[in-house]
Amino acid sequence: MTFDRHLVLDQLGGWRGMVDASLPTIAFIVANGIGDLTVGIWAAVVAAVLVFLLRLVRRESIQQAISGLFAVAVAVVIAARTGEARDFFVLGIIRNAAIGVVLLGSLLVRRPLVGVVAEWLAPSHLGAMSGHRLPSLRGRPRSGGAPVQPDAPEAAVEGAEPGRPQDPEPDVHWRDDPRMVRAYGWLTVLWGGVFLLRAAVQGVFYSLDEVGWLGTSSVVLGLPVTAVQLVITLWVVARLHRHRAEEPAVTGSDEERPAA
């Protein structure tokens, strides 16, 4: 199994998907400031629809666009019913608070969600990210060796995909490795803390009815902060993969050494 950073980005809609997700909010802020709530609502709706159509034309993943359309539709309905521009951001505030609580709550049962997601995308015992470098992950391993790969058995295991042997089970589950749990725990604190920070900052501006600052904080604490979080997360996960890959590699070399 080979890790590819594009797999992670695709799950998030890609970098362009994250940028596109910010456009309806930006359109609402600008239009509401120039005109009124009605103009802002229509600007947000038009921006969301255009993003959806552009991704269709470019034949890109529309998962992010569909979720964006749904979120904008709910936000628009709430704002239109209450007549308050600030209510356009209510859904986002509630969502950020809920995600933050769930992430931090996962630590109480020693199941850090960042670890659950990371291990599902690229199991650390396979060492797929052990040669990871931040500038590029595709076909450019660290100097000194290729990414650690498990030896493929000659015959495929029954029930596995044709032409692809089944991945080996880990000797030690990542949740039984204190270093893994600790690292994934801190990453979960990072992500959960940022979600709660967004909710807290926007909650203050909501209570003060500062629509402009609400939108600005939504954009500033959105894509730029998420990009930094992703870079940190990929760097830490790469180190964890090297940590998990080192012990099997050393053990295997000792076993293969001929007796004197």
UniProtKB/TrEMBL annotation:
Residues 151-163 have a biased composition (Low complexity). InterPro entries: UCP010219. Residues 164-174 have a biased composition (Basic and acidic residues). Residues 139-174 are annotated as: Disordered. Pfam families: DUF3159 (PF11361). Keywords: Membrane, Transmembrane, Transmembrane helix. It comes from the Bacteria. The chain crosses the membrane at residues 26-53, 65-82, 88-109, 183-201, 213-237. This is DUF3159 domain-containing protein. It comes from Modestobacter italicus (strain DSM 44449 / CECT 9708 / BC 501).
